[in-house]
Amino acid sequence: MTKTTDAVWKSESVVAYYLERKASRPFLREQLDVMLKVIKGLGRPVNRFMDLGCGDGILAAMILEEFPGSDGVLVDHSPPMLKAAEKELAGFAGRIHLCEADYGQASWVKPIEQYAPLDLVVSGFSIHHQRDSSKRRLYGEIFELLGAGGMFVNQEHVASPTERLADLWDRIRVDSLYELAVQQKLNKTRAAVEKDYLERPDREANLFSSVETQCEWLREIGYVDVECFFKYFELAVFGGCHPLA
Hints:
Layout: H1 12-21, H2 28-42, E1 48-52, H3 58-66, E2 71-76, H4 79-88, E3 96-100, E4 118-124, H5 132-145, E5 146-157, H6 163-183, H7 190-198, H8 211-221, E6 224-232, E7 235-241
Parallel strand pairs: 1-2, 1-4, 2-3, 4-5
Antiparallel strand pairs: 5-7, 6-7
């Protein structure tokens, strides 16, 4: 059995820390806009989709609103995250299927196969917790769940090409978190915010891979129209389509 590195996400305190700060992520709205444009422009009509590593359901909510006839399968291995998603998506209760599953294990796909073929699979800041071998395996499993013309779009943390750029990204991210702390009147210094960021409990679960490498994996698996649609330092939106035939 493959050992996973992201058990920390089953902690309610870690989940709460993440959800409180997600709005400070740079260019979040722009990333979501890019995802929608790509989905609407390249994918087939969305009737059934999967949100893999769904968190609190931010991507699922966007798709459910944009495609009123759709229903979604929300997959996460974290009970606190699934609980948050169920609360956030209460207005879509009849259109969502919550599934607690660890996609770090190959067996995760068995309970999902009943929903295939899928028109769309999305994931947001989740798959980077897997080792490279697990990422590539997962992309292949997603490919098999997609119907002809279906699309996979991944909003993700990716590796910086150099240590200097990784350090620069850390400074940019700390700046955004400090701005959030000021807005929330938390009375924290930038140094304190930086300490929290660098010592946060989920940091060791991050296993970043370059976006170029991941796009090449998708092509090797058989995805077409593979592209990185958005990139800002360690933030990227990339994916591809299952061939039409």
